[in-house]
Design brief:
Length: 253
């Protein structure tokens, strides 16, 4: 998952709000028992409702559907692909076994490989994230290099960047790395739900990018019978984080 400020990470998790709700209910239990009991039960009802996947999907779907996947004709007009890393997971596992563990955003890595095999002339720029969680001292770009080598890519056409802490810094690093070449047409590959914010950041640094969304989490619709509290809570966090970050960006510009 992308690196986020600690406050945003807390705010975007529904369980944080429920925990605060229940804490308040317990604190007022002695003085306002009826209100406290109502708050405890209402919190349980909300917790149960959070498990319906259709709710967070309704927040994610507009972001994911904003940009279509480019056609082959559009891809052929590009000079290369910019891939946004998502913060490599399990660096200790990679260091111990030499196999690159792909996260739930694996399509960010696998789709570009397919595109490069179809169009070998394309270049690849990988913008890694430094989430400050690596105890094995293995950067995301190191793992990306190993993955692309294992997939048989021509590494002379691959450039890797590391150290960015968020999407904004990824865009800034890529713009600095490419220089004037950022004005040439590039594909921007990242998760579909993150694409609106990513496009804004790359437009800010005056890079000419065409969105190539991957890692879709939603379909055309979500049946109301789809229920999983664990999976839905993760989707709630993803959706709320993106909406909050876009709101903060709009307020600051």
């Amino acid at each position: 998952m992308s690196a986020s400020p600690p406050v945003l990470a807390v705010v975007s998790q529904p369980m944080s709000w429920l925990a605060l709700w229940w804490l308040i209910a317990l604190l007022i239990l002695g003085r306002w028992r009826k209100a406290s009991v109502w708050m405890l039960w209402s919190g349980l009802v909300v917790l149960a409702l959070l498990g319906f996947r259709a709710l967070p999907d309704a927040l994610l779907r507009p972001m994911e559907n904003l940009y279509p996947v480019p056609t082959a004709e559009v891809v052929n007009r590009q000079v290369g692909i910019i891939v946004l890393g998502d913060g490599a997971e399990l660096p200790d596992s990679f260091k111990a076994h030499g196999q690159v563990p792909l996260s739930e955003t694996a399509e960010r890595m696998t789709v570009p490989v397919g595109l490069l095999r179809q169009s070998p002339r394309l270049e690849l720029v990988f913008a890694g994230l430094d989430v400050g969680q690596s105890t094995a001292q293995v950067s995301e770009s190191e793992q990306a290099r190993a993955f692309f080598q294992q997939q048989g890519l021509n590494m002379s056409k691959v450039r890797l960047d590391d150290g960015a802490r968020n999407t904004r810094e990824q865009a800034q690093h890529v713009a600095k790395l490419l220089g004037d070449r950022c004005q040439e047409p590039w594909l921007l590959v990242t998760s579909a739900w993150q694409m609106p914010r990513s496009m804004t950041e790359f437009e800010t640094v005056s890079c000419q990018v065409t969105p190539y969304p991957v890692d879709f989490r939603t379909g055309a619709s979500t049946p109301l019978t789809e229920y999983s509290l664990a999976h839905s809570l993760l989707r709630w966090q993803t959706a709320l984080r993106e909406w909050v970050e876009m709101l903060v960006y709009e307020l600051n510009h």
